[in-house]
Amino acid sequence: MHNGLWTKTFTLNMFINFVLYVVFYLLTVIMGSVALNQYHVSAGIAGLMSGIFIVGGFAGRLWAGNKVSQVGQKKMLIIAVIYYLLTTICYFALRFIHGIGFGVAATASGTIVGSTVPIERRGEGIGYYALSLTLASATGPFLAILLYQTLGYFYILYSATILLLLAVFAALALQVEPIVVEKKLSDTSFKLSKLFERTALPITFIGLLVGFAYATIVTFLATYTAHLNLLLAGSVYYIIYAIFALISRPFTGRIFDRRGASAIMYPAFVLFALGLVLTGAATTTVTLLLAAALVGLGYGSFTPFGQTIAISNVTVDRIGAATSTFYGFMDVGVGIGPLILGLLIPVLGYRHIYYLAAGVMLAVIFVYFLLFRSKKLA
């Protein structure tokens, strides 16, 4: 393995991950509004329609994390992206099954980056790779809202299909060395330890809570900003979020590698909490966009370095399991958030939902301290 970071495989894999998450956001951000406005369902059911995709993604991640080293990273990625493409085409009754394709493909892509970047530059490398997710989190919602308001829901599906076709071609062009796994008789037996990576569970629990808080941004922001008559600012919110995550990434990755996880994690949790408070308190465009900047610095820093922590103490053949454990439960947080918080909206209102999410992030700081105060990585 050489020390070069920006290889053809690394760059193509970033592009594939970008497409996976753009499609995710294209079809998730607007799903609640589609359910409310076109099907006239309750806020709770709208949240369920948004979240059921994440449940499928979680199922896909659990399976993929254990199988990726056996099937082969590139082969699994190609199959999963094609599956993701086909279920996008046949989307109307297949959102759960669609989520499985996303989960498997995203896990394969995450495993590739975890196993190909130089170990001594892992924080920096995964930090850059995660920019594909960050950029997708800005591009996807912006395109979703723009296309839904100007052309309609079907054009979102058309866009997702075209993007995934490009991802299939990019996956075919990847050059990835297979992970060599020693065959054992016990490999044929079913064990929960094959699905979950035990060493990744502490940061995975943190990721579950962070994902729950982030669900307020993914699912409710479009409707919330429409109520505030700040719909344009709500669209730009994701772009500001991505810009500040992008600005911070070069130096946060180096700080992580040199000074340890806690030097990044504690500021990230505080900034994310402040961003959620400002989002809930927003009455003007300036306040809302300042909140987006804080969320970008906070949440945008947690995701890549959370994965780095998750894979830090595993062998190369368990990187897939560690990646799927971390992202799977983080996705569960994003998935159950709309369902639980959607039920609370009629009682608390949108504004207080963001305050509640900020409270969750303050609790995360305490939980992280308890779990990582004695760990060498932190």
UniProtKB/TrEMBL annotation:
Location (main, coarse): membrane
UniProt-listed InterPro entries: MFS, MFS_dom, MFS_Exporter, MFS_trans_sf
Domain Major facilitator superfamily (MFS) profile positions: 1-375
A Pfam family reported for this protein in Swiss-Prot or TrEMBL: MFS_1
Lineage: Bacteria, Bacillati, Bacillota, Bacilli, Lactobacillales
Superkingdom, taxonomy of origin: Bacteria
Keyword Transferase included in the entry's annotation: no
Assigned keywords, A-Z: Membrane, Transmembrane, Transmembrane helix, Transport
Membrane topology annotation: Multi-pass membrane protein
Record-annotated membrane-spanning stretches: 12-35, 41-64, 76-94, 126-147, 153-174, 200-224, 230-251, 263-282, 288-314, 326-347, 353-372
Ranges in a coiled coil: none
Compartment(s) of residence: Cell membrane
Protein name: Permeases of the major facilitator superfamily
GO cellular component: plasma membrane
Nucleotide-binding listed as a keyword: no
MF (Gene Ontology): transmembrane transporter activity
